[in-house]
Design brief:
This is SDR family oxidoreductase. Belongs to the short-chain dehydrogenases/reductases (SDR) family. Keywords: Oxidoreductase. InterPro entries: NAD(P)-bd_dom_sf, Sc_DH/Rdtase_CS, SDR_fam. GO terms for molecular function: oxidoreductase activity. The protein has 268 residues and is of the alpha/beta class. It has one domain: NAD(P)-binding Rossmann-like Domain (Rossmann fold, 3-Layer(aba) Sandwich). 54% of the residues lie in helices and 13% in strands. The chain is built from 10 helices and 7 strands. The protein has a 7-stranded parallel β-sheet, sandwiched between helices. Helix 1 packs across helix 8, helix 3 packs parallel to helix 4 and helix 4 runs parallel beside helix 5.
Length: 268
C-alpha cells in the first residue's frame, strides 16, 4: 500500500492514537478527514496539521454520521481509500455492568466498524481496492482484567476484522487489525472502567501498565504506518503480545490459570 496521494478517514482523531495516525498519514502524503465526538478537540488537531486535514464531529457509531464523513471526504479530496475505525471507549466492570454499558461498548468498539464497512466495502470491491484498519486491542486477543464489556467488544472487533479479510481479501480489500497493549491515551488516563467501580478500575489499569511498556500514540501510529505499507493483518506495537497469544493457543487451560494468578497478584 502506497500512502501518498490516498484519501483516508480516521475516527477518534481528537486525541491519542487517532490524532497521531492523522498526523502520520498527512506527513506521508495522504489527505485525511478527522472525526471525533469532541468537536473542539478534533478541530484543534486538524488545524495543527494544516493542509490535507479537515475535521468533522459526530458519533461515529451512527451510520448517518459515517455516511456524512464519507461524503465529506469525497467532496474535499475524492473517493475514500482507507478507513481507520479507531474510536473506542471503555465500559463497565464485571457482571454488575449495565445493559447500557454493554450496548455502548459494543456500539463504538464493534458496530461502528461493521457500519463503516457496510458503506465502504461494496464500492471498494467495484474499484478493486480499499483498506480497512480496525483498532482493537491486545484485550481482543487475550482479555482485559476488570472489564467484561471492553474485553468482549474488542474480541468482537478482532473477529469482524478477520471475517472481513477472509471474505474480501481476494477482491482487492486489505484489512489490518491493531492490537496494542498500554498506550498513553485519555482512555488509559481516565480509566477503562467507571471510577465508581473502584476495585475493577484499579485492576484494569494495573493489568495494562504492568504487562508491558506504555507506548506513546506516536509510537503506535508509526507501527500502524509500517503495517499498512506492508499490508499486514495483525499490527502489534507490543511484539510480546504475539508470544502471549501463542501461549494462549498452545494450552488454553494453562493460560487461564496464569491469568488468574496474574489477577490475584494485582489484587494483592
Amino acid at each position: 500500500m502506497e500512502i501518498s496521494g490516498k484519501v483516508a478517514i480516521v475516527t477518534g482523531a481528537g486525541a491519542g492514537i487517532g490524532a497521531a495516525l492523522a498526523r502520520a498519514l498527512v506527513a506521508g502524503g495522504a489527505r485525511v478527514v478527522l472525526a471525533d465526538l469532541a468537536a473542539d478537540r478534533v478541530a484543534e488537531v486538524a488545524a495543527s496539521i494544516g493542509a490535507g486535514a479537515v475535521a468533522a464531529d459526530g458519533d461515529v457509531a451512527d451510520e448517518r454520521v459515517i455516511r456524512g464523513l464519507i461524503e465529506r471526504a469525497e467532496a474535499e479530496f475524492g473517493p475514500v481509500d482507507l478507513y481507520f475505525a479507531n474510536a473506542g471507549i471503555g465500559g463497565g466492570a464485571g457482571l454488575q455492568s449495565t445493559d447500557a454499558q454493554w450496548a455502548a461498548a459494543l456500539e463504538v468498539n464493534t458496530m461502528a466498524h461493521v457500519r463503516a464497512a457496510r458503506l465502504l466495502v461494496p464500492g471498494w470491491v467495484e474499484r478493486g481496492a480499499g483498506y480497512f484498519v480496525a483498532t482493537a486491542s491486545a484485550a481482543g486477543l487475550l482479555t482485559q482484567l476488570g472489564s467484561a464489556p471492553y474485553s468482549v467488544s474488542k474480541h468482537a472487533a478482532v473477529g469482524f476484522a478477520e471475517w472481513l479479510s477472509v471474505t474480501y481479501g481476494d477482491k482487492g480489500i486489505r484489512v489490518s487489525c491493531l492490537c496494542p497493549m498500554g498506550v498513553d491515551t485519555r482512555l488509559l488516563q481516565t480509566g477503562l472502567v467507571p471510577a465508581e467501580d473502584v476495585a475493577e478500575a484499579e485492576l484494569a489499569v494495573k493489568a495494562v501498565t504492568t504487562a508491558g511498556a506504555v507506548l506513546t500514540p506516536e509510537q503506535v501510529a508509526a507501527a500502524v504506518m509500517e503495517g499498512v505499507v506492508a499490508e499486514e493483518f495483525l499490527i502489534l506495537p507490543h511484539p510480546e503480545v504475539l508470544e502471549m497469544y501463542r501461549h494462549k493457543g498452545a494450552d488454553y487451560d494453562r493460560w487461564l490459570r496464569g491469568m488468574r494468578r496474574f489477577q490475584a497478584g494485582l489484587q494483592a
